[in-house]
Amino acid sequence: MSDTVSSTVRDIVRVEDVRKTFTVWRKRGRVRRERVVVDAVDGITFSIAAGETVGYVGPNGAGKSTTIKMLTGILVPTSGLVRTCDLEPSRERVELARRIGVVFGQRSLLWWDLPLADSFDLLRHIYRVPAPAHAARLAECTELLELDPFLATPVRQLSLGQRMRGEMTAALLHGPELLVLDEPTVGLDVVSKAKVRTFLRDLNAQHGTTVLLTSHDLSDIEHLCNRLLIVDHGRLVHDGSLDALRDRYGGERTLVIDLTEPGPPIDVAGATVHRIDGPRQWLRFRRAETTAAALVAEIAARYPLRDLSIEEPAIEDIVHRIYVDGA
Amino acid sequence: MHVSEAWTMYRHLIGARVRSQLQYRTSLALDFSVSFVVTFLDFAVVVVLFQHLPALGGWTLPEIALLYGMSGIGIAIADMVIGQVEDIHVDIRSGQFDVVLLRPVPTLLQVMASDLALRRIGRVLQSVAVLVYALAAADIAWNPARVALLPVAVVCGAFVFGATFVLGACLTFWVVGSTEVASTFTYGGNQMTSYPLTVFGPWLRRMLAFAVPLAFVTYFPGLYLLNKPDPLGYPQWFQFAAPLVTAVFVVTAGLVWRTAVRHYRSTGS
Predict the structure, then answer these.
(1) What is the ipTM of this complex?
(2) How far apart are CA A321 and CA B18, in angstroms?
(3) Residues of B in contact with A127 (CB under 8 A)
(4) Which residues of A are less than 8 Å from B94 in CB distance?
(5) Looking at chain A, which terminus has fewer C-beta neighbours within 10 angstroms, N or C?
(6) pLDDT value at position A288?
């Protein structure tokens, strides 16, 4: 190869017009069954650059898991192109397995009746990781995820939060370039969730590991991802930053104003009062029409202002609206 | 994956399984004894049968014991090493099979490495005991060929039964709830190969000889060991064909397994 190496960041995942259809047999009458072809993934295109943290969101049955399975080589796509770590997952599954880590919220990478530490040791042999590299990564995960107190505990006796921290370690011990997490925080308590999030953020910052995350919990995505892919009915309906999503679908923000005493509704251009509670008033405004700064300046000049805050539209509400309206 | 690497990995995984079974020694000892006693009762039925019959299909008790022992060791070892493949449908339904597909190791090797049922050693020992009895009581004119053929046939038997387990498991990729059908061939096959082919009707005979080639690892080599003429008139080379037939059958099972995994990866179920 020549030395004119492209300076652009390499794509870890590249998906072009990928489709996956499943054939299901639906009952019609007593014996007769009808063949129905379901498009689980119906022509999706996107790519993920090395070092990105991307959220992949969609309602149940939207095609999230199917996409993940095609990226990781579990499922073979019906048509289209999939490249993960420059490999074709469906044909180079074993080679790809060394370079990615996958955590499923609902499945386990660990050995149920063995102490957690033993599972990690077995994984070293499965992935054939050199002992020093393995030890270094394990030490790092043990410290950051605070595994020490339960390393000797059989996996079946771990709490869900402890087990999930173990699963995450299991997926990372071979030093993958891409970490895929399918619903990693399902059922976790607030403390465990926070630990997992901090860990993933550090992982991305320190090691440049690319992270692809699906979650029902959009606050996971909000805390972790700078980019969001939304899939619905097997199609990609949004690909961009959270801010872009808000601009596009949830332009309305809310300014909460506390006046020194109750008064008439505030009347300013570009915003409308939609609720009053004593001295507190809620004003809605659109990003496109005015800025928070302009509004605050005008209100402060004309009304006895005591305090204020700005509420962004909940990402949940926006995504929900996309599903309901079909974007 | 290199064979030596595969072996190292297998040893570590199995070592862990064995250690966790040894944690429950009492339960293991109990399982072990029960399996030993139950299989002994199984052979006792044959002995009782011979209290009333001088011979069965032209075979005496020690001669039948030879077939029983060879077949029994084969299935017990196969069951111990790869019998857990029968439960693959549970992993498929729960999605745990996806985890198998995400590891850089051949799928069947992972299934083999997932368990080693120590309690089945009871069964192995029982079959060894029956075989020892047969070798002592039967009239065998030992020569180098016979000395070599016995272990070869037993090892081939383990492979053929192992391949039968795998083929049965493949069926469950397509047909939900077909585990019972698979058992007909594995455990049922063991029951049948414990007796000479001559006691079965022609249809069953052909199935045992050619569909699931269990006769090639028990009945045919048994004829040679005992220096008996084959009343069914099959060619004499059948008696030495165990390695060849086993190789073909094992490769076939491997290819069917691959097809089954491919089917799973295209349908997701």
Answers:
(1) 0.83
(2) 54
(3) 103-104
(4) 107
(5) N
(6) 75
